[in-house]
Amino acid sequence: MSAAPTIAIIDYGSGNLHSAHKAFERAAREAGSDARVSVTSDPDAVRRAERIVLPGVGAFADCRRGLNAVPGMVEALEETVRGRGRPFLGICVGMQLLATRGLEYETTPGLDWIGGDVAAITPADTALKIPHMGWNTLDVRRAHPLLAGIPTGADGWHAYFVHSYALTPADADDLVAVTDYGGPVTAAVASDNIAGTQFHPEKSQKLGLALIKNFIGWRP
Amino acid sequence: MLKIRVIPCLDVKDGRVVKGVKFLDLRDAGDPVEWAIAYDAAGADELCFLDITASHEDRGILLDVVQRTAEACFMPLTVGGGVRTVDDIRALLLAGADKVSINTAAVKNRDFVKEAAEKFGDQCIVVAIDAKAVGPGRWEIFTHGGRNATGIEAIAFAREVVSLGAGELLVTSMDKDGTRSGYDLALMRAIADAVSVPVIASGGVGTLDDLVAGVREGHASAVLAASIFHFGQHSVGEAKRHMAAAGLPMRLDT
């Protein structure tokens, strides 16, 4: 039996995990890691994993319901991520679920691992389209190992975003990076071993692969 | 700042690229996956596959193409053509498409847009609008490659599908498609200004200046083109540099 550490990508029925799976596999290979990447809905696999990834697309409430519908998953996450401090990455709505509450369509409780609400983006320039869809740069608010070696700022690399809602952390220290869309919009958050990106690293070409490699090597 | 997207579109029939000619150094110029990898490397901001396979029974071939593309390219992929049911959408998303474009099915049944958006999220539902001018400032929706008139007014239709949950519109002028005389800028602008979601301009690109005009005068958030890229007239990188030189915000760090 292989004793290789695993990266568990949680499958709770929220969209396609194929590209996330492939992107993590490629990043692991390029980083020289022997980690095995598994897509799973088994809470015990999450408990055994060295690192945990929570993706998510669609509406906040649907994703929350989907996560709750996997027996024992929220408990396994609480125990493994919060209790045992395993590195965790939330992606898009998987990142938004870290918040205290989601305000999309209805008020829905999040995991409350990063205090704050997920609310509609309201760009100052009303001509800007919603969803915020496409490639945008990052402005760092707090240096973080996940962004190590990634050029940021207006001339930096780009990340791929698709969202209409954003998490505003209650504690400014949890804000790692923003992107500019008619004002600052949260792009990445982190607190201890817990991190999340609003953009899709698995769709963000070289920035995404660099960030995933950083996550694979992250020792919070 | 959000960048303008350049989206090459490939017509795929029975799992093979049609219309393309061999100009890139591809081992197999008919393989959509090879094109996808080449466009990815050239800096395409997204990729679009339009499936024109006649038979719905041969769907498995397209799903295989989508799956192999998603394994090789870490960039957003939209797939359209023959999308009729929620199961069609689910199959494409599970194969690795990020967005699915709905055309005739949305015209026939608007509730399909709502059902799809509620099930999979607005962000992955693109409604493809094929329109033809029927008078000054008036366009109608056509289906079946511009052959079938529907009598539906295009701008009202655009507003309606957005209210039902379309996250993006792919607007093609059937008057301009294939003419290489530029986008129907009045159509693009009329729709882009009428809806809150991003509009992708399509149909008629002949020069790189047409791409600039699609954004500046057509108010599109993204520009789609097929033949200028496939026939080697211009590379995606050239297109993006040209648009940047014209003052548009482009992603050039690829």
Automatic annotation (TrEMBL), chain A:
Record Gene3D superfamilies: 3.40.50.880
InterPro entries per UniProt: Class_I_gatase-like, GATASE, Imidazole-glycPsynth_HisH
Subcellular location: Cytoplasm
Superkingdom as given in the UniProt entry: Bacteria
PANTHER family reported for this sequence: IMIDAZOLE GLYCEROL PHOSPHATE SYNTHASE SUBUNIT HISH
Keyword Zinc tagged: no
Gene that produces this protein: hisH
Assembly notes: Heterodimer of HisH and HisF.
Source organism phylogeny: Bacteria, Pseudomonadati, Pseudomonadota, Alphaproteobacteria, Hyphomicrobiales
Active site location: 92, 200, 202
UniProt name for this protein: Imidazole glycerol phosphate synthase subunit HisH
Catalysed reaction equations from the record: L-glutamine + H2O = L-glutamate + NH4(+); 5-[(5-phospho-1-deoxy-D-ribulos-1-ylimino)methylamino]-1-(5-phospho-beta-D-ribosyl)imidazole-4-carboxamide + L-glutamine = D-erythro-1-(imidazol-4-yl)glycerol 3-phosphate + 5-amino-1-(5-phospho-beta-D-ribosyl)imidazole-4-carboxamide + L-glutamate + H(+)
EC code(s) of this entry: 4.3.2.10, 3.5.1.2
Pathway: Amino-acid biosynthesis; L-histidine biosynthesis; L-histidine from 5-phospho-alpha-D-ribose 1-diphosphate: step 5/9
Sequence ranges assigned to domain Glutamine amidotransferase in this UniProt record: 19-215
HAMAP family per the UniProt record, alphabetical: HisH
Keywords: Amino-acid biosynthesis, Cytoplasm, Glutamine amidotransferase, Histidine biosynthesis, Hydrolase, Lyase
Zinc-finger in keyword set: no
Biological role stated in the UniProt entry: IGPS catalyzes the conversion of PRFAR and glutamine to IGP, AICAR and glutamate. The HisH subunit catalyzes the hydrolysis of glutamine to glutamate and ammonia as part of the synthesis of IGP and AICAR. The resulting ammonia molecule is channeled to the active site of HisF.
UniProtKB/TrEMBL annotation, chain B:
Gene Ontology process terms (BP): L-histidine biosynthetic process
Location(s) in or outside the cell: Cytoplasm
Catalytic activity, as annotated: 5-[(5-phospho-1-deoxy-D-ribulos-1-ylimino)methylamino]-1-(5-phospho-beta-D-ribosyl)imidazole-4-carboxamide + L-glutamine = D-erythro-1-(imidazol-4-yl)glycerol 3-phosphate + 5-amino-1-(5-phospho-beta-D-ribosyl)imidazole-4-carboxamide + L-glutamate + H(+)
Predominant location: cytoplasm
Gene Ontology molecular function: any one: lyase activity
4Fe-4S recorded as keyword: no
Pathway assignment: Amino-acid biosynthesis; L-histidine biosynthesis; L-histidine from 5-phospho-alpha-D-ribose 1-diphosphate: step 5/9
EC top class named in words: lyase
Catalytic residues (UniProt): 11, 130
Gene3D superfamilies in alphabetical order: Aldolase class I (3.20.20.70)
EC numbers for this chain: 4.3.2.10
Record key words, sorted: Amino-acid biosynthesis, Cytoplasm, Histidine biosynthesis, Lyase
Superkingdom field: Bacteria
Gene Ontology CC annotations of this record: cytoplasm
HAMAP family attached to this UniProt entry: HisF
Subunit structure as annotated in this protein's UniProt entry: Heterodimer of HisH and HisF.
Function: IGPS catalyzes the conversion of PRFAR and glutamine to IGP, AICAR and glutamate. The HisF subunit catalyzes the cyclization activity that produces IGP and AICAR from PRFAR using the ammonia provided by the HisH subunit.
Family the UniProt entry places it in: Belongs to the HisA/HisF family.
Name of protein: Imidazole glycerol phosphate synthase subunit HisF
